[in-house]
Amino acid sequence: MSWREAVRLSGVGFSELSVQAIWALRQGNLVPPGPAGTLAARARRRVVQSKGIISGVLALLALGAAFALRSSGVASSAFTGGAPSGVFDAGVLTGLFGLDLAFLWWTGMQVLPTFLSSGVLTLLETLPIDDRTLARTSGLLYLRLFDLPSLTILVATPVFVGLALGPWAGIAVVPGAVTVVGVALALSLLTGRFFVRRVQGARGGGTIVRWAYLTLWLVPAFAMFGFVVAAPAFFALLKGGAASGPSLAGDLLLVAFPFPLAALPATVASGPSSLGLAATGGLLLARAVVGYLALGTAALYWVLGAVRRVGLVPPVVPGPARSVPLVLRPVGAALAVLTKDLRIASRTPGYAFLVLLPILDALVLGLWTYASVTTSTAAAGLGLAAVTTAALLATFFGPAFFAIEVFAYSYGRTLPLSDRSLLVGKVALIVLIYLIASTLVVGLTLARVFAPIVLVGFVAAELPAVGAAAFLELGILFRRARTRGLPITNLYTGAWLAFLVSIPGLLVASLPLVVYQADRLLAGNLRLLAMGLVALAELALSAPYALGREPS
Amino acid sequence: MASDPTPLCVDTLSVAYGERSAVDRLSFTVRPGEIYGLLGSNGAGKTSTIRSIVGLVRPVGGRVRVFGRDCVSEGRRVKELVGYVPEVSLLYDALTPREFLEFVASVRRLDRGVATDRTRSYVSAFRLEQEFESPIVTLSNGTRQKVLLIAALLHQPPLLVLDEPLNGLDPRSVRIMKELLVRYVGGGERGVLFSTHTMEVAERLCHRVGILDRGILRGEGDLAALREQVRAGDASLEEIFLRLTEEREGVRAAVDALEGPG
């Protein structure tokens, strides 16, 4: 059989994958209302919508980088302290490549468990298809998951960079784009395989591996805004390297991924001198570019052939269990929902991310505040900003906790579990995440500036608003679920709805923060009081909305 | 429990998916102390009927009452009275059996001691000790089915609704399950609704059976009553089933057609 047959088969397989991902029928969801004949078409449309959103974000990143490159003269002096324009351009493109890589890998890690557990590859194996076509079909099926986002990186990056730095620079950025896509797809596949083999079925002693994996998963997420935080230091490093001439540290920076790929278009645009490179540095850079391009191409080639092997890899079966006393500890229904969600999150990367990101983000910002800020006013300001971030992150990801109900949906609905218990359990989880994150920030900030009334008061005043936002978001989703079935499965399949529902939630969570910032006429404690009253009013409105219509 | 002692009363139940009718004005009753078997071919409407009882599907007509309580208007109360094993073992794969049963026990508001004692007994009977702390995703179909059976029995419900419950079970567990069901209704108050394709099991286990074909009840009663209905004094349940669903000739024709090309 041929490539043409592989393309055809991968199209059929992708339809099945879309149906499974969107409607989650193998996870116990019921067949949704509407004409059965249009199920596959509706699923494919929803997947394209989600891919479109992710591609839009990637295109915006490239556009943003182009704007930065266009204004390199002004920005360079303001942002980098007068580094050469080539250094600035290389830095911007390094950031863009880093963000592209992180975002694509992050997306892949969300999608891979669904892909591998869909059974599509296993089904293909049972058909009389030769090995080569099977491998090609599996590879193409995997590539289809990333087609629009990858194409966006491969097309938008050269176009926007070309517009900003000239056509030759646009062409010179292509090796970087290809390499980033290849490495991201390979990383997604490798980490997906690790998840299926080592994380999904882990028990007992596997807990450490499990949580290590879940933390590893946060690396690309942090890389996305880590670059923004570290950008000034990064530019200072580049400037220093350019000024001081060849050194081991400079050489290491020169070959660090993905800097050489970013330096190539910068060099093409502004000439070799713009980076302050000596001849040996230029040679080193050229070798690194060739090496990384080879790595990216090899990664793409490896992905095409390896998906089949990876897809069929069996999970590591745990050995005989330790003999532990068999005790069940039933709790209240809402607490049981919260516990169940945390347990599922601990074995499901997509949900672990939702729990861990606001907490680790708060920890990082708290440590940053503790370690770097010299004045107490600045420390307090940063602390409050970190609490604000935690509140908004917890609120933004809130709707996704609803998606956990997709698991074993039909079985769960046969239990005498009220919607109220379900809602309260999930709202409690979101509030808990906010509280843990805020406690970390406040604890670290208090060590620098002892202003407990302001800091603790701020956390407490925002608390009802986080609850109100969670009630509102989940209330909307529950009402929709009752009438139209469960809408969200993961980022890739229901992103648009999660984003839409997050908007009113974010507005509700933000309003008290705006009141605190805007009401400059009041003294500090009165501002906190005003903030808390607004938050309580929001809670008083949104909780009855969510809990009000309890079906029998 | 409600004042009506009848475990299950299905009254002119109709279920449809869009234009397609799955169950058409179906009526039957599970009496106290009875194991009632629901028999039918694939797509006969067994699972749709059962899903209406446990609240997964909203009927388009008729009523279903569990101990006198309406399955639609008193859905949550009915769910407290029912233990359910679905046809396909779709569970929370990321949880272990212990975590899953703890969740079920919590939702069903069981006391810690009661939940633990019952779980110990069932885990021991089904030899589930080794898998009790492993994520459900790693378990075989039969083991998952055992977990579902334990979850259905955990609160000792007065009505058990079992959709193909013996699928994937090993012979020992099948035997335990059969004995358990007989004892379960022995007190004379509880009821069991049991759907199956396996005629031998239904013949030995069920006090009465209802034969469902394309959403319509073709026959109902104990073996003697069904034999009388088809006027065949020594017919097996399989024979009765094929006659009532008018598939006996169809089976012969199908086999003949298959032999032809060979």
Q: What is the alpha-carbon Rg of chain B in Å?
A: 19 Å
Number of distinct beta strands of chain B: 10
* Average predicted confidence as pLDDT of chain A: 79
Number of strands of chain A: 0
Q: What are the segments of chain A in which pLDDT stays under 50 over at least 5 consecutive residues?
A: 488-492
**What portion of residues of chain B is helical?**
25-40%
Outline of the structure:
With 552 residues, chain A is mainly α.
Question: Could you describe the 3D structure shown?
Answer:
The complex is a heterodimer of chains A (552) and B (262). With 552 residues, chain A is mostly helical. Chain A has 2 domains: 3-21 and 37-311, no CATH class; 333-547, no CATH class. Chain A has helices at 3-23, 39-70, 72-80, 85-117, 120-125, 131-145, 147-165, 167-172, 174-199, 207-216, 218-244, 248-255, 259-270, 279-311, 333-345, 349-372, 376-402, 409-412, 419-448, 452-484, 491-518, 524-547. In chain A, helix 2 (39-70) packs parallel to helix 7, helix 17 runs antiparallel to helix 19 (419-448) and helix 20 (452-484) runs antiparallel to helix 21 (491-518). The longest helix of chain A is centred in the N-terminal third of the chain and has 33 residues, at 85-117. Chain A starts with a helix and ends in a 5-residue tail after the last helix. Chain B has 262 residues and is α/β, with parallel strands linked by helices. In chain B, 39% of the residues lie in helices and 24% in strands. Chain B is built from 10 helices and 10 strands. Chain B has a 6-stranded mixed β-sheet, with helices on both faces. A 4-stranded antiparallel β-sheet of chain B has the order 2-1-4-5, with helices on one face. The model of chain B has no long low-confidence stretch (mean pLDDT 88). At the A-B interface, helix 15 of A face helix 2, helix 3 and helix 4 of B.
